[in-house]
Amino acid sequence: MNAQAKPLKNQKPYDMFTCLPQDVGRVEYVRRLKNEETLRAYKAICVAFEKGSGHNLEEIKKKIEAVDPAQRLNPSLHSIVHQAGVAMRAGDALGCYRALKWIEEEQAVVRHPGMLVQAPNNSPASAEAIQHMHNDPTKDVHGRRAEIYETREEELVEYRSDIERVLESIKLLDPLMHDEMLASVSEATVFRAQALMGGSLIRTFGAIYIGSPDHDPIRKEFGEHFNIRGVPYFMEHVVHETSHNVLFGLMLVDPMVLNPTTERYSAPLRTDLRPMYGIFHASFVISRMLRIFKLMEASGEIQYARLIKHFEPRLKNGLDILAQHGNLTPSGKQMFDTFAPCAGI
């Protein structure tokens, strides 16, 4: 793949490997790469299933061919292709077939504008991501594993309003970041949890997951950062998780990090040692979070000073680890050099 995509006619130029928000064409380009990858895999699994089972999946393949990879695609489409592949490798023919048939009844292309805020539902993307996060063995700083609880749609009224205000503020202060966020993410799932504030997965590309600020009992007892709620809370997590999705796409163009996953180092946002890939991701997202926090503070929102104080030393730790131990591609080095300027440090 080309390290630098060529802008379309009448499109503003953009840099590919920078943490700084760019013209939305950058994200649209990498989103298309991810969508094309998923659609190719979907069709290949169909062909393999036909050969192995004798079933004719021609109608499913026609539906796959009709999907426009330039659009925002339903995160569940990415998820069911992953699930179909897992089932096929496990010899689970029925599970594979059920996953492949998803496109016959569900909408592959996102039709709603903006970012849909929802409670966990039974969609393949939501169910898979919630299960993945719930089963993560990582413990928080208080020694607790993640627990995710039932969340009702009516609980989200206030949170939905907070997230709308987050997007409005970012659109005003940093319109390029706002456009990148909505080009990469179409839905945000908010859920009750303990020891978990959010998550994103490449196999549910286009979706983000955020823990409620009001249902972890320990938040009332430990530290001023834990007591941040409302718009500042969702500002942190919406920027954090959407930035992961942006970087998922950019890493399809170039891996940027060459360290083996067996190497583990101190991480900016985790208590356990993490591979360099994770530290690179954390540094990318914190840089963008700090950028927005400082813009908010400069606009008169002084409560963001606490978030800046909390995250700035964590970014500096991540940058030190990357500088000392990171085995980065030329594009990865180019990206790394933009973390500090993006964060304003």
Topology record:
Blueprint (H helix, E strand, L loop, with lengths): L24 H29 L4 H9 L8 H15 L3 H8 L1 H4 L10 E3 L5 H12 L11 E3 L7 H17 L1 H10 L2 E8 L3 E2 L7 E5 L18 H24 L22 H23 L5 H22 L4 H14 L2
Parallel strand pairs: 1-3, 3-5
Antiparallel strand pairs: 2-3, 4-5
Helix pairs in contact: 1-2, 1-3, 1-4, 1-9, 3-4, 3-6, 7-8, 7-9, 8-9, 9-10, 10-11, 10-12, 11-12
Can you describe what's shown?
It contains twelve helices and five strands. It is α/β, with parallel strands linked by helices and about 350 residues long. It folds into two domains: about 25-105, no CATH class; about 115-345, no CATH class. Strands 1, 2, 3, 4 and 5 form a five-stranded mixed sheet that branches. Helix 1 packs across helix 4 and helix 7 packs across helix 9 (about 230-255). It is globular.
Give a quick rundown of the structure:
The protein has 345 residues and is an alpha/beta fold. It has two domains: 25-105, no CATH class; 116-343, no CATH class.
